[in-house]
Description:
Mean pLDDT: 93
Strand order of the largest sheet: 2-3-4-1-5-8-7-6
Largest sheet: 8 strands, mixed
Strand content: over 45%
Distance between the termini: 13 Å
Number of strands: 8
CATH architecture: Roll
Number of helices: 2
Order of helices and strands: EHEEEEHEEE
Low-confidence stretches: none
Helix content: 10-25%
CATH class: Alpha Beta
CATH superfamily: 2,3-Dihydroxybiphenyl 1,2-Dioxygenase, domain 1
Amino acid sequence: MHGTFVWNELTTKDVEAAKAFYAETLGWTFEEFAIPDGKYWVAKSGDQIVAGLGGMEAGAIPEATESYWFSLIGVDDVDACVAKAVARGATVVRPPMDVPNVGRVAIVRDPTGAAVGWMKGA
């Protein structure tokens, strides 16, 4: 799935309000998913996993002050893509790291200032 969007997640100031909103408007249910930096929930539509949701303390964009949706793109090699991106003017927000039971991820800010995650699934 190299080059395609593979995951979307909401980072929010009010997790419980966000969960209630998406449950009431889209019918999503939520299951807690253990992470080292706090709590994280996987959103499901029926039996299908559709997104993730977490608090600002573990957010993808450290300087963010408002809630936001964030996308990750699947890549064949996270480290190689980060190196290419930096060579072409990107900055690293979060260097490549392994997330247990998820895969390898990194966050870069492209030369226009947009942040995006790159991920190779486990």
